[in-house]
Amino acid sequence: MILEGIRMEDNKVQVSLEELLYYILFAVILFTKGVGLDEGSLLFRGCLMLGVLLLACKFLVGQYSMAEIIIAGVLGIWGAFTFKVTGSLGMFIYVVLAIGMKNVSVKRIFVVGTTVWSICMFYSVTAAVFWGRTGVRRVDEKFGMGPVLRESLGYTHPNVLHITYVLLMVFALYLCINHKKKIFYTVCLLLLGNLYVFMYSFSSTGVLTSAVLFILFFYFYKRRKFSLWETGIIQGLPIVCVIISIVFPMALGNGILFEIVNKIFNSRLWAIKVFFALYDISLFGGGNEGIDFSLDNSYVYAINEYGVIPFIMLTAAYVLLLRYCIKKNLRMELAVICTFLFAGISEPFLFNASIKNITFIFLGEFLYRVIENEKCVFKLLSRYNKCFLFSCDFGIKLKKRLSSTRWKMVAGVALTAGILSFLLLFPKDVIGINQVYVDEKLCDAARDTVRLTEFPAVDGTMYIENASKDINYYYFTHENSQLIELMDLRFKISLSVYIAVAVGILYMCGRKTFNQKFRTEK
């Protein structure tokens, strides 16, 4: 179904060289964060350099007007400047993605994104659950359950894990929303995946963002035409988000109302008030050294890193982008943009190096649409911008096979296998852990700490993150919390899910093979 709308004649897709270069660039950059690489790692920097090289090749083989070259050059210089001043690659990466968008299909980008992101997430989750590539772990008191171990499954924070999954949901919904027969099953799978991810992340902001995403996608899907007040609200959303992020915390004062709202938002409002009270704000950014707390708000993060002038320009760009999407009736794009702008109030991923803000793809396309009627004067190696034909036969055959599959039967077999595995195959204590020591810096729980003088190699003991005599630990057992029981439960659920998926795939393939053999013999 994702091939519909992009398939050419004779079941072949036609892709130009400059378009192909961008898809490779996008896949390489997505890979870096899809597998949880850190911004400072050598592999991350190497992939980014490869992406910049691919972008340069795209400009060489493409055709650009003087206005396009000037604007792309100015944005590129600004992106490099922000990296030089702040040390963060976030805006530079987003500029690379935006200025490379000329003559590139957004739908094909989402096909590439869905493929790369799903493979990377599958690797990260599998490596974390079964091979110990856990990433950052925290212990917090959540939802009245007492202390729970929050896992990031290979990423930099449990909240990042959930936002990573939200991006996968965006890719899938964008491609499937117009397919009425498939969207129900897609939504069911995404909701189950959301529950699975929440089981590890315990991210309230992740769940809230997921809910907003579903609501907005189906709202914009149903709305064929927007009223005047809807248009005003949508276009003004960036400004509303800025007001909520900056003005609202200041307006609350320091009373009981502020304490209640601040607790709901996990001290985010306190961090914003402290930032504006103690740290300077510049016109062109540079960041403030010595900040020992997190700015979990994309808009405040942008003001701190990039300055007031670029921040105003970014806000204006989003207002104009929303206006353009309304005018062109790009409803799915509106759903993605509005969801991400809303999520930026409680998460910093819009403008940092997390590479999850794919709305910059829409900004790039919008930029080139505005100036596309200019005469192309830069076409240095455009004669090499050949078109390639890629056969869709495999995709078409796969689609037919999937369409003919009795998914209810497959789901029933897989569900049965998963339930039986959970109930019968695994002992009560499958992880074999009896006590957990957690570094106090990674724990937000109301209890006493202990300091260890030696670390005997005792079976069933876990240290998070390291064993050291210089660290105060929180100590958890079966008797003083449900933390270990929850760890054991979700590991058994993970094992059951993987068994269910494997059995479902084997059943589907085996049934196809049996049917083909039966028809041949008959």
UniProtKB/TrEMBL annotation:
List the transmembrane segments: 20-36, 43-64, 70-97, 109-131, 160-177, 189-221, 233-257, 269-287, 307-326, 407-426, 489-509
What name does the UniProt record give this protein?
A: Uncharacterized protein
Origin species, per record, is Parablautia muri
Lineage, top-rank taxon, reads Bacteria
Keyword list (alphabetical) reads: Membrane, Transmembrane, Transmembrane helix
